[in-house]
TrEMBL record:
<dbReference type="Pfam" id="PF00903">
    <property type="entry name" value="Glyoxalase"/>
</dbReference>
<feature type="region of interest" description="Disordered">
    <location>
        <begin position="1"/>
        <end position="31"/>
    </location>
</feature>
<dbReference type="GO" id="GO:0051213">
    <property type="term" value="F:dioxygenase activity"/>
</dbReference>
<dbReference type="InterPro" id="IPR037523">
    <property type="entry name" value="VOC_core"/>
</dbReference>
<dbReference type="GO" id="GO:0004493">
    <property type="term" value="F:methylmalonyl-CoA epimerase activity"/>
</dbReference>
<dbReference type="GO" id="GO:0046491">
    <property type="term" value="P:L-methylmalonyl-CoA metabolic process"/>
</dbReference>
<dbReference type="GO" id="GO:0046872">
    <property type="term" value="F:metal ion binding"/>
</dbReference>
<dbReference type="InterPro" id="IPR051785">
    <property type="entry name" value="MMCE/EMCE_epimerase"/>
</dbReference>
<dbReference type="InterPro" id="IPR029068">
    <property type="entry name" value="Glyas_Bleomycin-R_OHBP_Dase"/>
</dbReference>
<keyword id="KW-0479">Metal-binding</keyword>
<dbReference type="InterPro" id="IPR004360">
    <property type="entry name" value="Glyas_Fos-R_dOase_dom"/>
</dbReference>
<protein>
    <submittedName>
        <fullName>Catechol 2,3-dioxygenase</fullName>
    </submittedName>
</protein>
<keyword id="KW-0223">Dioxygenase</keyword>
<keyword id="KW-0560">Oxidoreductase</keyword>
<feature type="domain" description="VOC">
    <location>
        <begin position="187"/>
        <end position="313"/>
    </location>
</feature>
């Protein structure tokens, strides 16, 4: 196998230094489908069930969401940007993640998707209405593709602080006193999912929804077996979009890992984090800056133990960029910040985690002893 030549002077090839040491080797996964069914435009919202909507609303307001709609059985959360809601929480017996909803670029995309998958175009149960197609990815996770009839209007947003840089003095005769208040969410950025069927699930999102890979991660000594994590973005051609809208990684469980919500700047992250800490919420990891995606980050647990991220200043990629390839490691998750926690990595030992591992090793999937040992090594390196 031979390394694909990389032009270090080409500004469209940033896969070097901290981003990634190299691109693909000959014959490796191209990171995109040749003829996808449709190309989704963005992540619309995430769907959850929880038994206590009042408690969920208290955390949502503390974390920085605005309320788009509230009924006895549903809570719709939004950011300040115009567009779709960020999240819907429906009343249920137990707390669980249902699945993601992606936004179709055009209404006709739903018809094309329904014809190709054998599904139906149905009315959308969301503020403003619209249409949706329901699917299942290879992991069995429900995925909806939606087209909203109406968009939510913009709300007042947090202004970024005016900063002085060296001799560039933009603020004079004025102090800097960011208020300690919730970090006002602007929008939903991405969701991270775990699956023991990584390769099949990855190809499904590329083939069916037209998404493309920004970065692959592989296990040390196992690159020939293919990647074990992918950071995936929407393909909007020359329009630069978030480095990842969806991230998938191989693991024993199926489903939600965390979701990320954009805020204004680093001060919004920090002041909002102080606000959350004062109210007794648990920080999972942060504050720091990621490598893949470059986001400033801060991770928190809600009262139902779901992990949510405040982020700012993420990378934006157009369709020109090919995937980067880098080894998976715990130390490779951040450029700077505190050491990554066991809580963030999901490596805290528990009977439930052991059952997940044993079930996955006995199942028809991609997790075998060598892969499991490689993941364990990566998360401790």
């Amino acid at each position: 196998m031979f390394e694909t030549p990389v032009d270090r002077a080409d500004p469209r090839t940033p896969h070097q230094d901290l981003h990634s040491e190299q691109g693909a080797l000959r014959g490796e996964h191209p990171g995109r489908a040749r003829n996808p069914v449709i190309k989704v435009a963005d992540l619309a919202w995430l769907e959850f069930e929880k038994p206590d909507l009042d408690r969920a609303e208290v955390f949502a307001r503390d974390f920085g969401f605005a309320i788009a709609a509230r009924t006895e059985g549903e809570l719709w959360l939004r950011g300040t940007f115009a567009g779709s809601p960020c999240m819907v929480i429906r009343k249920g017996i137990a707390s669980r993640f249902i699945g993601p909803a992606f936004r179709a670029a055009e209404r006709v995309d739903l018809d094309r998707l329904a014809r190709d998958t054998g599904g139906d175009v149905r009315d959308l149960d969301a503020p403003g209405g619209g249409k949706a197609v329901g699917l299942l990815d290879p992991s069995g996770l429900p995925v909806r593709v939606v087209h909203c009839a109406e968009q939510l209007p913009a709300l007042p947003h947090q202004q970024p602080l005016i900063l002085n840089f060296g001799t560039d003095h933009r603020r004079t005769n004025a102090t800097q006193r960011p208020p300690r208040e919730p970090s006002r969410i602007q929008r939903l950025g991405h969701v991270v999912l775990e699956t023991p069927l990584f390769a099949r699930t990855l190809d499904w999102y590329l083939d069916t929804l037209g998404m493309i890979v920004s970065d692959f991660l592989f296990l040390d000594g196992q690159r020939g077996r293919g990647p074990t994590m992918a950071f995936i973005r929407c393909d909007q051609g020359s329009l630069a979009v978030d480095h990842h809208t969806l991230a998938l990684h191989l693991g024993p469980a199926t489903g939600y890992v965390h979701s990320a919500y954009q805020v204004t700047d680093l001060d919004a992250i920090a002041a909002g984090g102080e606000y959350l800490a004062e109210r007794g919420y648990q920080r999972s990891w942060g504050i720091g800056r990621h490598i893949q995606g470059s986001q400033l980050f801060d991770y928190w647990r809600d009262p139902d133990r779901f992990m949510l991220e405040h982020f700012a200043d993420g990378d934006l990629f157009s369709c020109d960029l090919e995937p980067g390839w880098a080894p998976m490691s715990a130390s490779g998750l951040a450029q700077w910040g505190p050491p990554v926690t066991r809580d963030f990595l999901g490596t805290n030992p528990s009977p439930a985690k052991l059952r997940e591992v044993m079930t996955a090793l006995r199942g028809d999937n991609e997790l075998d002893p060598a892969r499991l040992l490689g993941l364990m090594k990566a998360m401790s390196s």
